[in-house]
Design a protein that fits this description.
DNA-binding, Helicase, Ruva Protein, domain 3, five-stranded antiparallel beta sheet, N-terminal domain of MutM-like DNA repair proteins
DNA sequence: AACGACACCTGGAGGC
DNA sequence: TGCCTCCAGGTGTCGT
C-alpha cells in the first residue's frame, strides 16, 4: 500500500496517539518474521518503561525515537498498519505484534500479507538506514538542477529510477505513474533522455502529486488505513493509476496499462 | 550496471 | 456455488 503520503499519515496518526507514552516491555507476537526473527522477550527487554519521544518518517519507514536512544523503525510494505487500542480489546484479524504501553493500551501491528517489518535500531543502524536512501522529495537541497543531475548519468528507464529508493525516497508505483502523467513523460523514456526542462517539470509534478496526496490523507485502494483506521481519499484524484481504458483527462485517449520495471504501469500513449 | 525472475504472503476479483 | 488463475500500494536476492 503505502508510499510517502500514506506512510507520513500513518506515522503522524500513530505519533499523535503514543508520543509521550511509555512501552512497558510486554510483547505478544504471532508472526516472528515481523520482528525479523528476534525473540520477543529480547525485544521487550529493551522497551521496559521506555518513552516514545517523537515520530518522523524517512523514505517509507516510520521512525519512533525512544528515550533510551534506540529508534523503533517500522516498514508497512504492502498491507501493514498500526492500531492503538486497549490491552483488553480482542485481537484483530491479521494482527502480528502487540506492544504493551504502561497506560494500559497496546500498539498493535496488523499486516495481512506479513511483509511488514519492525526493528529496534541503534544509532549506527539508524544512520545506516538514513544513508541507504536517497533524497526526500521535499528536501530543499533537491533543486531542479540536482534532480536533473540524478537522471543524467543513467540510461535506466525513468520509471525505474523514480522507484529506486536510493535515488529518491518515498515514491512508489502509484505516484510514479501519477507524476509521469502530469509531466507528460513516457514511463520507459531513458532517464538520460529527460531534458533539464522536463526534469524541472517532473520534480514539480512529483511534489504536487505528493502534496495533494498528503492533504487527502493518502490513497486507499483496498487495505490502507491510517493509525486511527481512516481511509485516504487521494484515489479519487488519480489521473493515470488504476484508470485503464478510461479517457485521459488531458486528451481523451484511453489510458493504457502495461508492465514497466516489473510493475503495472498506467499512462496515456498519446500525451506521454 | 541493469534487468528479469522469483521469493516473501494473503485474499479479493473475475473467468469458467 | 466452487474452483482456478491472476493480481496487488514493496523490496531483497540471485542469475544472466
Amino acid at each position: 500500500m503505502p508510499e510517502l503520503p500514506e506512510v507520513e499519515q500513518a506515522a503522524r496518526t500513530l505519533g499523535e496517539q503514543i508520543v509521550g507514552a511509555h512501552f512497558d516491555g510486554t510483547i505478544r507476537c504471532s508472526w516472528l518474521k515481523t520482528i525479523e526473527g528476534h525473540a520477543p522477550d529480547v525485544l521487550g527487554a529493551q522497551l521496559v518503561d521506555v518513552m516514545v519521544t517523537g515520530w518522523r518518517r524517512r523514505a517509507k519507514w516510520i521512525l519512533l525515537p525512544l528515550a533510551n536512544q534506540l529508534t523503533m523503525a517500522a516498514h508497512l510494505r504492502m498491507t501493514g498498519r498500526f492500531v492503538v487500542c486497549g490491552r483488553d480489546e480482542a485481537d484483530i484479524p491479521q494482527q502480528r505484534v502487540a506492544f504493551g504501553l504502561r497506560d494500559g493500551r497496546e500498539v498493535r501491528f496488523v499486516d495481512q500479507r506479513k511483509f511488514g517489518r519492525i526493528r529496534l535500531l541503534t544509532p549506527p543502524e539508524l544512520h545506516q538506514l538514513e544513508t541507504a536512501h536517497g533524497y526526500e522529495p521535499f528536501d530543499d537541497a533537491l533543486t531542479p538542477t540536482v534532480f536533473a543531475g540524478l537522471l543524467q548519468p543513467t540510461k535506466r528507464i525513468i520509471k525505474a529510477v523514480l522507484l529506486d529508493q536510493t535515488v529518491l525516497a518515498g515514491i512508489g508505483n502509484i505516484y510514479a505513474d501519477e507524476a509521469l502523467w502530469r509531466a507528460q513523460i513516457h514511463p520507459q523514456l531513458p532517464a538520460n533522455q529527460v531534458s533539464s526542462a522536463q526534469a524541472t517539470v517532473l520534480l514539480d509534478a512529483i511534489q504536487t502529486v505528493l502534496r495533494q496526496a498528503l492533504t487527502n490523507g493518502g490513497s486507499t485502494l483496498r487495505d490502507y488505513r491510517d493509525s486511527y483506521g481512516a481511509k485516504g481519499s487521494q484515489q479519487d484524484n488519480f489521473m493515470a493509476y488504476d484508470r485503464t481504458n478510461q479517457p485521459c483527462m488531458r486528451c481523451g485517449t484511453l489510458i493504457v496499462k502495461t508492465v514497466v520495471a516489473q510493475r503495472g504501469t498506467h499512462f496515456c500513449p498519446q500525451c506521454q
